[in-house]
Write a structure and sequence with these properties.
576 residues, 25 strands, elongated
Amino acid sequence: MSGSFRFSTSLSSLQTREFPRMPFPKPPIHVPNHVVTSKPMTAAQSRGILPENLRVTASELPITVASSAAVTEAEGLEVDRVTEVELQENGFRSTRRTKIVCTIGPRTCEFKDIEALAVGGMNVARVNMCHGTREWHRDVIRRVRQLNEEKGFAVAVMMDTEGSEIHMDDLNGAESAKAEDGEIWTFTVRAFDPPSCPERTITVNYDGFAEDVKVGDELLVDGGMVRFVVIEKIGPDVICQCTDPGLLLPRANLTFWRDGSLVQERNAMLPTISSKDWLDIDFGVAEGVDFIAVSFVKSAEVIKTLKSYITARSPESEIAVIAKIECIDSLKNLEEIIQASDGAMVARGDLGAQIPLEQVPSVQQKVVQLCRQLNKPVIVASQLLESMIEYPIPTRAEVADVSEAVGQQADALMLSSESAMGQYAEKSLAVLRSVSLRIERWRREEKHLDATNLPVVSSSKSAKISEEICNTASRMANKLEADAIFVYTRTGQTASLLSRNRPDCPIFAFTPSTSIRRCLNLQWGLIPFRLDFSDDVESNLNRTFSLLKAREMINSGDLIIVVSDVMQSIQAIKVP
């Protein structure tokens, strides 16, 4: 690749041109700045008095046309119908920059449900190997692929490993169980057939469980959603009393605290990737998933070993490895883990069970900032809209939490139980989408242009040139109030470097690779297109302008900053 730097422009009278502001759609959800109340409210009351305009109905999803996801494919250009309609109706500034990951579960596993989520804004579909069989997950993955092929979406698939931490069984097939205050429950290593399982008895996956636990220990389920205290040990059975009632979910993680400190000894001897996880990884590689998220990562070596294994099993594979930051050991080796991975997930639920709750927000911010500096996409996950598992609208605190993650400019937000087993999966997605759009618009209106000092992440001279071109292109786009940045990329790296800069305008990423197009759908601000292009930048531009103008996705006079990794170059050009 040439090491030369090329700049060209076809602009005239930049100083006198007033660039038009594109209209921004009114979000389907309005979050009020304040609500005056006369007395403290319970959680249920706080939901009950929210204004009607905060209620989301199925008809308020962003795109509701009959052919909502029809593929646009001509002369090699592929873009989903949702993106096309959004750009046609609302312009560049309407596009959402923060991406959304949805966990697929029993309530959202059918083709029509997955399509509804894609239409509503889902960028990545997550399958959680803690639940269900491989056959069930295979069906889900293939439905996502079918949706992409038939309707033109670029929804990526993320497979999340179970990990080898201590967890409960599957509750004998029940969706959940309710533990009430003061109830006595038995946790045991004994396995039971469903008909013979005693009432309020849960099997634990760790054989040394009863030996390690002591009377007086606190047992936290699913990061503290339910809390028990150990009152007696009888052989393999640990008898506990519920002190904080709540909902028990299948295969929820268990942690123990003793004298105010987390008991880690039992987990230290367990491998990060279990024998089941390796079989699940083989399954994921065979099914061609786009991301593998590794649970309870303790060191960078685990990530390196997995990446080498994937390469050996499938040399042509482009599977990205995501490190889940959810245990104390992850924090001890944070930078090395993120550097070795292809991205990170802040799994706040399990993390909050291992560190004091008041430390979780600062850890989240640290991980988001570090990923940005190292040019790794980062996902903020767990309990974003937990109340919407049961209720049709979120609490104000949840809206504020989502707003904070968007304000930190995380690449993506993730729904877990809200979309997997909640009663209001599509409404939860609509809330994430609307809040993201509103906070992103507010940042632009208030001129909160990002001024983060980003360190150089490239090593070779050629890579450093590309990195500086992307930095310069982003600054130009902001100063000239460009309508969009176009990037032609074969590997996705140049698009990723542009995303890292968090420019004010959207980034159209054109790539000939279908798999890279899907992977780019996780990164902030990127609108991925599949397009076959040549080494001739001018020819690529003319063809792209023609195709996009024909679909009314761009207009004559729009100002575009153009970057290419085919020939290291940057251009500022008006659409003819």
